[in-house]
Amino acid sequence: MTAYNSAAYIHESIASVLGQDEKDFVFIIIDDASIDTTPEIIASFKDPRIKYIRNKKNLHIALAANAGLRLVNTKYVLRIDSDDICLPKRLSTQLQFMESHPEIDVCGSSIEFFDNEKGTWKMPLTDAAIKARMLWDNVIANSSVIVRMETLKSHHLEYTSKFQFPPFEDYELWIKMLPFARFHNLNQILVRKREYAESQSELHNKKANEQLENFYKWVFVFFNFTASENETTFHILDKKPDIKITIELLVNYKAWLIKLLTHFSSNPIFEKKELNRVVERKWKTIGNQIPLKDVFMLNKYLSLSKGFADDNALAMLKRRIK
To answer: Residues 250, 301: contact at Cβ < 8 Å?
Structure first.
């Protein structure tokens, strides 16, 4: 666990870790130079399993997490954020799974949101499905993850601080692991994730979108894939709910998805069937936002748009707006 000025929630988070039904573990807490009462709250726990480290200066989440990773000498490492909650059987459930599936390097779970936002985040389960989605979305929740330490050590992997807002340190790590690691998500909720009202602010979302584009530029370079500025913007259209969807945008977005599919379908990391499923889902998400006033143009476009995933998504749109 890394913590910075987490006084409001860290007591509940620490208690959820110490309350696991599996009792044999070391709990490393890295206090990243907090200036509130976080250190006092951590010190109030007298459990001998806690190994507490306080940074002299604020390193930010990625480098603080690395300081913790370097102290791990166990077979597995689990992460939890200082404001999230582990359900009581999280550790035992994930340990049992990893021990019985030695081929898996990284395992997460479904997430339940609470506080400002409520709901469940259901993740893709299989390695192939996870890897296909990773080209668009981070579908391994950092607070739910268990990782084999040997996998990290043998490939000399740590978090990096390249993308600080919002923190993409885990997403970047998973991308780097895609070529050689195997992933899995358990189809059950093992962690409750706190969502803050302030994280939904206009300023936050603006900065997040800017950083998101920079992140995917890095992903494309990582996979030797060339994308223009406009294409990178198209890549995150489904994360921009206020954007106006036009016929012209649909045409360009379709061309972008075809380009992605053509390139990554030949990459042995990704399974073509799963890539097709993700592309179809993204296509439907954007296409369903077409304004009803564009019905005529949509029908015209339908007659010109053969050849992409049988155009099931646009056919569905046509039926919807009749």
So the answer is: yes
Q: In the CATH hierarchy, which fold is given to the domain comprising 2-200?
A: Spore Coat Polysaccharide Biosynthesis Protein SpsA; Chain A (3.90.550)
d(CA 72, CA 37): 26
CA 277 → CA 124, 174, 185, 257, 261, distances in Å?
Answer: 12, 21, 18, 12, 11
Q: Computed from CA positions of residues 198, 203, 205, 211, in that sequence, does the dihedral angle turn out positive or negative?
A: negative
In tens, the pLDDT along 166-194 reads: 678 899 999 999 999 999 999 999 999 98
* Through-space distance between the first and last CA atoms of the chain, rounded to whole angstroms: 53
Tell me which DSSP letter residue 25 carries. Answer: -
| Interior/surface letters 79-103, b for 16+ CB within 10 angstroms, e for the rest | bbbbbbbbbeebbebbbeebeeeee
CA angle 146, 13, 198 (to 5 degrees): 100
Cα distance between residue 175 and residue 157, in whole Å: 11
User: pLDDT per residue over 94-142, tens digit each?
Assistant: 999 999 999 999 999 999 988 766 788 889 999 999 999 999 999 999 9
User: What pTM value is reported for the model?
Assistant: 0.87
> Which residues belong to CATH 3.90.550.10 in the chain?
2-200
